[in-house]
Amino acid sequence: MRNKLVAANWKMNGDFSALAAWVAVMKESVPEEGGAQVVFIPPYPYLRAAVDALCRTQIGVGAQDVSAHVSGAFTGEVSAGMLLECGCKYVLVGHSERRSMWSESDEIVAAKFEAATKVGLIPILCVGECLEERELGLTEKVVVGQLNGVLDRVGPTIFGAGVVAYEPIWAIGTGLTATPQQAQEVHGVIRSRLAACDDGLSEKTQILYGGSVKAGNATELFSMPDIDGGLVGGASLDAGEFAKIANAAL
Ligand code: PEP
User: What ipTM was predicted for this assembly?
Assistant: First the structure.
């Protein structure tokens, strides 16, 4: 039985006072044990404050990106070791915004995934199709292609240290949500691909759904057999709303 996981991706939003207010609400609203694993993913400058503020809770902290390199002349990059030292447990890799705005290829995403696992961070690999690809019937091809882009490079053992997030690009930040059936269909495809590699990998890998998850649609989405929780952007900025989403994943 896989545990549910719900992650709050703040993207490039927030400040120290918003963080303190968010943490206060979450501490009151999320059960100390027995609930879903909750992960808070603020921008880099707030990671350490988040780790300190959440240290006596079950809420973990993650980063939005990581360098594929260990150290050296890579201005602006942050290594997996630095994130770990900061107290992070998770890191997003291959978010669609990074793939599209920073031209991150599957090769780069795989290298970041591997760099994270090497130090013991849990990478959350984001995959998903754009609207045009869905309309052309290419969803499965695109999603499995992105999955293979990492799985074939790092192998099943390293891949098994991570989490997958299916995030249809047409649903990210648009208010459009995949129906639970649409999401389940793609999650099923992802799980079958993992099963073709190794049954154990398929059974243990958490597959999250992301794309305009809100308190109003979370329960239905999270009740689907292959949806193990959510990656939440916009709605995670409102702590009350996000707490309801986290509590829907029981
Ligand atoms: C995201 O950016 O990962 C995301 C799912 O955003 P939103 O919830 O705003 O669609």
Answer: 0.97
